[in-house]
Amino acid sequence: MQSSNHRLRDMEQHHPLLSAGPDVESGSLAGGVIVGVPHSGHTAANRTLWFIQDSCGMVCAGITWFLVLYAEFVVNFVMLLPSKSFWYALLNGAAFNSLAVLALASHMRTMLTDPGAVPKGNATKEYMESLQLKPGEVIYKCPKCCSIKPERAHHCSICKRCIKKMDHHCPWVNNCVGEKNQRFFVLFTMYIALISAHALGLSGMHFFTCIKAQWNECSNFSPGVSVLLLIFLCLEAILFLTFTAVMFGTQIHSICNDETEIERLKNEKPTWERRLRWDGMKSVFGGSPSLLWCNPFTGLRLRRLLLLTHGRRGGSEFSV
User: Fold this and answer.
1) pTM for this structure?
2) What pLDDT score does 306 carry?
Protein backbone atom coordinates (compact mmCIF):
# COMPACT_ATOMS: atom_id res chain seq x y z
CA MET A 1 0.00 0.00 0.00
CA GLN A 2 1.31 3.44 -0.93
CA SER A 3 1.45 5.62 2.12
CA SER A 4 1.90 8.81 0.10
CA ASN A 5 -1.26 8.52 -1.93
CA HIS A 6 -3.40 6.54 0.57
CA ARG A 7 -5.14 4.52 -2.11
CA LEU A 8 -8.91 4.36 -1.82
CA ARG A 9 -10.89 1.38 -2.98
CA ASP A 10 -14.48 0.29 -3.34
CA MET A 11 -15.10 -3.08 -1.71
CA GLU A 12 -18.10 -3.90 -3.88
CA GLN A 13 -17.28 -2.49 -7.33
CA HIS A 14 -13.46 -2.64 -7.05
CA HIS A 15 -12.67 0.71 -8.62
CA PRO A 16 -10.81 3.73 -7.21
CA LEU A 17 -13.11 6.08 -5.36
CA LEU A 18 -11.06 9.08 -6.42
CA SER A 19 -11.15 8.30 -10.10
CA ALA A 20 -12.70 10.93 -12.31
CA GLY A 21 -16.45 10.67 -12.46
CA PRO A 22 -19.69 12.46 -11.77
CA ASP A 23 -19.54 11.71 -8.02
CA VAL A 24 -16.15 13.34 -7.61
CA GLU A 25 -17.11 16.28 -9.77
CA SER A 26 -20.22 16.89 -7.69
CA GLY A 27 -18.22 16.85 -4.45
CA SER A 28 -18.95 13.33 -3.18
CA LEU A 29 -17.50 9.85 -3.46
CA ALA A 30 -19.00 6.55 -4.46
CA GLY A 31 -19.99 4.13 -1.72
CA GLY A 32 -17.18 2.01 -0.38
CA VAL A 33 -14.29 1.83 2.05
CA ILE A 34 -11.74 4.60 2.55
CA VAL A 35 -8.28 3.86 3.90
CA GLY A 36 -7.18 6.11 6.74
CA VAL A 37 -8.71 7.78 9.79
CA PRO A 38 -10.01 11.35 9.82
CA HIS A 39 -9.41 13.79 12.62
CA SER A 40 -12.21 14.14 15.13
CA GLY A 41 -11.92 17.90 14.91
CA HIS A 42 -13.96 18.00 11.70
CA THR A 43 -17.45 18.80 12.86
CA ALA A 44 -20.54 20.35 11.39
CA ALA A 45 -21.45 23.96 11.88
CA ASN A 46 -22.96 24.79 15.26
CA ARG A 47 -26.72 24.62 15.33
CA THR A 48 -29.08 26.11 17.81
CA LEU A 49 -32.07 23.93 17.00
CA TRP A 50 -32.45 20.55 15.34
CA PHE A 51 -35.85 19.48 14.11
CA ILE A 52 -36.81 16.53 11.92
CA GLN A 53 -39.64 17.26 9.50
CA ASP A 54 -41.26 13.84 9.62
CA SER A 55 -45.07 13.81 9.61
CA CYS A 56 -45.37 10.60 11.63
CA GLY A 57 -42.85 11.79 14.20
CA MET A 58 -44.51 15.19 14.56
CA VAL A 59 -47.92 13.56 15.09
CA CYS A 60 -46.50 11.16 17.69
CA ALA A 61 -44.73 14.02 19.48
CA GLY A 62 -47.99 15.99 19.49
CA ILE A 63 -49.86 13.00 20.92
CA THR A 64 -47.24 12.70 23.67
CA TRP A 65 -47.73 16.32 24.70
CA PHE A 66 -51.52 15.98 24.53
CA LEU A 67 -51.53 12.94 26.81
CA VAL A 68 -49.24 14.59 29.37
CA LEU A 69 -51.38 17.74 29.37
CA TYR A 70 -54.51 15.59 29.65
CA ALA A 71 -53.03 13.91 32.73
CA GLU A 72 -52.28 17.35 34.16
CA PHE A 73 -55.89 18.42 33.59
CA VAL A 74 -57.41 15.36 35.26
CA VAL A 75 -55.02 15.38 38.20
CA ASN A 76 -55.40 19.10 38.88
CA PHE A 77 -59.05 19.81 38.08
CA VAL A 78 -60.73 16.46 38.78
CA MET A 79 -58.76 15.20 41.79
CA LEU A 80 -56.69 17.86 43.56
CA LEU A 81 -58.55 21.17 43.37
CA PRO A 82 -61.85 19.72 44.70
CA SER A 83 -59.96 18.02 47.55
CA LYS A 84 -60.90 19.11 51.06
CA SER A 85 -57.31 18.67 52.28
CA PHE A 86 -55.27 21.75 51.42
CA TRP A 87 -51.88 20.18 52.11
CA TYR A 88 -52.76 16.99 50.22
CA ALA A 89 -53.66 19.02 47.15
CA LEU A 90 -50.69 21.37 47.50
CA LEU A 91 -47.98 18.74 47.98
CA ASN A 92 -49.28 16.35 45.34
CA GLY A 93 -49.95 19.18 42.91
CA ALA A 94 -46.44 20.58 43.33
CA ALA A 95 -44.86 17.15 42.91
CA PHE A 96 -46.95 16.07 39.92
CA ASN A 97 -46.69 19.36 38.02
CA SER A 98 -42.95 19.61 38.65
CA LEU A 99 -42.41 16.11 37.28
CA ALA A 100 -44.64 16.89 34.29
CA VAL A 101 -42.64 20.03 33.49
CA LEU A 102 -39.39 18.06 33.72
CA ALA A 103 -40.84 15.33 31.49
CA LEU A 104 -41.92 17.82 28.81
CA ALA A 105 -38.61 19.68 29.05
CA SER A 106 -36.74 16.38 28.60
CA HIS A 107 -38.94 15.59 25.61
CA MET A 108 -38.17 18.97 24.02
CA ARG A 109 -34.42 18.60 24.64
CA THR A 110 -34.48 15.11 23.11
CA MET A 111 -36.43 16.29 20.07
CA LEU A 112 -34.51 19.53 19.43
CA THR A 113 -30.98 18.32 20.17
CA ASP A 114 -28.69 17.11 17.41
CA PRO A 115 -28.29 13.39 18.27
CA GLY A 116 -24.78 13.32 16.83
CA ALA A 117 -25.27 13.73 13.10
CA VAL A 118 -22.21 13.29 10.92
CA PRO A 119 -21.60 16.26 8.58
CA LYS A 120 -23.40 15.53 5.33
CA GLY A 121 -21.34 15.25 2.15
CA ASN A 122 -17.93 15.47 3.81
CA ALA A 123 -16.55 12.50 1.83
CA THR A 124 -15.12 14.71 -0.91
CA LYS A 125 -11.83 14.44 -2.72
CA GLU A 126 -10.66 17.76 -1.29
CA TYR A 127 -11.53 16.76 2.27
CA MET A 128 -9.89 13.35 1.93
CA GLU A 129 -6.71 14.98 0.67
CA SER A 130 -6.71 17.31 3.69
CA LEU A 131 -6.74 14.40 6.18
CA GLN A 132 -3.61 12.95 7.69
CA LEU A 133 -4.39 9.34 6.82
CA LYS A 134 -2.50 6.35 8.13
CA PRO A 135 -1.84 3.39 5.82
CA GLY A 136 -3.70 0.24 6.73
CA GLU A 137 -6.42 1.89 8.77
CA VAL A 138 -9.90 1.70 7.32
CA ILE A 139 -12.86 4.04 7.59
CA TYR A 140 -16.21 3.70 5.90
CA LYS A 141 -18.18 6.07 3.75
CA CYS A 142 -21.97 6.11 3.72
CA PRO A 143 -23.26 6.04 0.13
CA LYS A 144 -26.63 7.46 1.20
CA CYS A 145 -25.53 10.77 2.74
CA CYS A 146 -21.98 10.92 1.28
CA SER A 147 -20.45 11.14 4.75
CA ILE A 148 -17.37 9.57 6.23
CA LYS A 149 -18.93 7.24 8.77
CA PRO A 150 -17.22 7.20 12.19
CA GLU A 151 -16.98 4.03 14.20
CA ARG A 152 -20.34 2.99 15.73
CA ALA A 153 -22.28 5.40 13.51
CA HIS A 154 -25.35 4.18 11.63
CA HIS A 155 -27.49 5.74 8.92
CA CYS A 156 -31.06 6.70 9.80
CA SER A 157 -33.45 6.59 6.86
CA ILE A 158 -35.86 9.00 8.57
CA CYS A 159 -33.31 11.63 9.64
CA LYS A 160 -31.42 10.96 6.39
CA ARG A 161 -28.14 11.27 8.27
CA CYS A 162 -25.52 9.06 9.84
CA ILE A 163 -25.83 9.29 13.64
CA LYS A 164 -22.95 8.67 16.05
CA LYS A 165 -23.71 5.87 18.52
CA MET A 166 -27.26 5.66 17.18
CA ASP A 167 -29.43 3.63 19.55
CA HIS A 168 -32.73 3.83 17.67
CA HIS A 169 -35.12 6.27 16.03
CA CYS A 170 -38.03 7.07 18.34
CA PRO A 171 -41.14 8.55 16.70
CA TRP A 172 -42.47 9.68 20.10
CA VAL A 173 -39.64 12.20 20.34
CA ASN A 174 -39.43 12.69 16.55
CA ASN A 175 -35.69 12.13 16.58
CA CYS A 176 -32.93 9.60 16.75
CA VAL A 177 -31.50 8.68 20.13
CA GLY A 178 -27.77 9.03 19.76
CA GLU A 179 -24.55 10.19 21.33
CA LYS A 180 -25.61 13.76 22.12
CA ASN A 181 -29.24 13.39 23.25
CA GLN A 182 -29.39 9.96 24.92
CA ARG A 183 -29.19 11.65 28.31
CA PHE A 184 -32.38 13.63 27.68
CA PHE A 185 -34.19 10.56 26.36
CA VAL A 186 -33.32 8.65 29.54
CA LEU A 187 -34.64 11.55 31.63
CA PHE A 188 -37.80 11.66 29.52
CA THR A 189 -38.57 7.98 30.10
CA MET A 190 -37.78 8.32 33.81
CA TYR A 191 -40.05 11.34 34.40
CA ILE A 192 -42.90 9.89 32.34
CA ALA A 193 -42.70 6.69 34.38
CA LEU A 194 -42.75 8.71 37.62
CA ILE A 195 -45.77 10.84 36.70
CA SER A 196 -47.57 7.73 35.44
CA ALA A 197 -47.01 5.96 38.76
CA HIS A 198 -48.04 9.12 40.62
CA ALA A 199 -51.20 9.46 38.54
CA LEU A 200 -52.13 5.83 39.24
CA GLY A 201 -51.65 6.34 42.96
CA LEU A 202 -53.75 9.52 42.98
CA SER A 203 -56.47 7.84 40.93
CA GLY A 204 -56.66 4.91 43.34
CA MET A 205 -56.83 7.26 46.31
CA HIS A 206 -59.53 9.33 44.61
CA PHE A 207 -61.67 6.26 43.82
CA PHE A 208 -61.34 5.04 47.39
CA THR A 209 -62.28 8.44 48.82
CA CYS A 210 -65.25 8.94 46.51
CA ILE A 211 -66.66 5.48 47.16
CA LYS A 212 -66.77 6.26 50.87
CA ALA A 213 -68.41 9.66 50.26
CA GLN A 214 -70.70 11.10 47.61
CA TRP A 215 -69.27 11.49 44.11
CA ASN A 216 -70.76 14.96 43.83
CA GLU A 217 -68.57 16.06 46.75
CA CYS A 218 -65.38 14.59 45.25
CA SER A 219 -65.30 16.48 41.98
CA ASN A 220 -66.65 19.53 40.24
CA PHE A 221 -67.69 17.30 37.35
CA SER A 222 -70.64 14.94 37.22
CA PRO A 223 -70.01 11.37 38.49
CA GLY A 224 -70.22 9.90 34.98
CA VAL A 225 -67.74 12.37 33.48
CA SER A 226 -65.37 12.00 36.43
CA VAL A 227 -65.35 8.21 36.16
CA LEU A 228 -64.69 8.31 32.40
CA LEU A 229 -61.85 10.80 32.81
CA LEU A 230 -60.28 8.74 35.59
CA ILE A 231 -60.60 5.45 33.71
CA PHE A 232 -58.91 6.91 30.63
CA LEU A 233 -56.18 8.39 32.82
CA CYS A 234 -55.57 5.02 34.49
CA LEU A 235 -55.32 3.25 31.13
CA GLU A 236 -52.96 5.90 29.85
CA ALA A 237 -50.84 5.73 33.01
CA ILE A 238 -50.58 1.93 32.89
CA LEU A 239 -49.48 1.95 29.24
CA PHE A 240 -47.02 4.79 29.72
CA LEU A 241 -45.61 3.33 32.93
CA THR A 242 -45.05 -0.07 31.33
CA PHE A 243 -43.49 1.31 28.16
CA THR A 244 -41.26 3.97 29.71
CA ALA A 245 -40.12 1.77 32.61
CA VAL A 246 -38.98 -0.89 30.13
CA MET A 247 -37.30 1.73 27.94
CA PHE A 248 -35.59 3.32 30.95
CA GLY A 249 -34.23 -0.03 32.09
CA THR A 250 -33.09 -0.87 28.55
CA GLN A 251 -31.31 2.45 28.18
CA ILE A 252 -29.52 2.17 31.52
CA HIS A 253 -28.46 -1.38 30.64
CA SER A 254 -27.13 -0.20 27.26
CA ILE A 255 -25.22 2.68 28.84
CA CYS A 256 -23.67 0.49 31.55
CA ASN A 257 -22.60 -2.05 28.92
CA ASP A 258 -21.59 0.60 26.35
CA GLU A 259 -23.66 -1.09 23.68
CA THR A 260 -26.41 0.53 21.64
CA GLU A 261 -29.65 -1.23 20.76
CA ILE A 262 -28.60 -1.50 17.11
CA GLU A 263 -25.28 -3.07 18.07
CA ARG A 264 -27.07 -5.53 20.34
CA LEU A 265 -29.61 -6.52 17.67
CA LYS A 266 -26.89 -6.91 15.03
CA ASN A 267 -24.72 -8.78 17.53
CA GLU A 268 -21.77 -6.60 16.59
CA LYS A 269 -18.49 -7.51 18.22
CA PRO A 270 -17.03 -4.49 20.03
CA THR A 271 -13.94 -3.06 18.34
CA TRP A 272 -13.85 -0.13 20.76
CA GLU A 273 -12.74 0.12 24.36
CA ARG A 274 -15.90 -0.27 26.39
CA ARG A 275 -16.84 2.11 29.18
CA LEU A 276 -18.64 -0.06 31.68
CA ARG A 277 -21.04 0.86 34.47
CA TRP A 278 -20.17 4.21 36.08
CA ASP A 279 -17.73 5.18 33.35
CA GLY A 280 -20.51 4.73 30.82
CA MET A 281 -22.97 6.72 32.94
CA LYS A 282 -20.44 9.54 33.35
CA SER A 283 -19.80 9.68 29.61
CA VAL A 284 -23.53 10.05 28.88
CA PHE A 285 -24.62 12.30 31.77
CA GLY A 286 -21.33 14.12 32.24
CA GLY A 287 -19.20 14.48 35.35
CA SER A 288 -19.53 12.77 38.68
CA PRO A 289 -22.95 11.65 39.97
CA SER A 290 -25.00 14.62 41.13
CA LEU A 291 -28.49 16.08 40.96
CA LEU A 292 -27.46 17.79 37.72
CA TRP A 293 -27.82 14.40 36.06
CA CYS A 294 -31.59 14.75 36.57
CA ASN A 295 -31.75 18.30 35.20
CA PRO A 296 -32.92 18.51 31.57
CA PHE A 297 -32.12 22.23 31.49
CA THR A 298 -28.38 21.71 31.93
CA GLY A 299 -26.44 23.34 29.11
CA LEU A 300 -29.51 25.11 27.74
CA ARG A 301 -28.69 28.54 26.35
CA LEU A 302 -31.84 30.63 26.06
CA ARG A 303 -30.01 33.36 24.21
CA ARG A 304 -29.25 30.97 21.37
CA LEU A 305 -32.84 29.79 21.22
CA LEU A 306 -33.97 33.38 20.71
CA LEU A 307 -31.61 33.91 17.80
CA LEU A 308 -33.71 32.52 14.98
CA THR A 309 -31.66 34.11 12.24
CA HIS A 310 -29.34 32.31 9.90
CA GLY A 311 -31.77 29.36 9.77
CA ARG A 312 -31.72 26.97 6.90
CA ARG A 313 -33.78 24.12 5.56
CA GLY A 314 -32.33 20.98 4.12
CA GLY A 315 -34.12 17.74 3.34
CA SER A 316 -36.00 16.31 6.27
CA GLU A 317 -34.37 18.50 8.90
CA PHE A 318 -34.60 22.13 9.92
CA SER A 319 -31.61 23.67 11.61
CA VAL A 320 -31.44 27.09 13.24
Assistant:
1) 0.78
2) 58
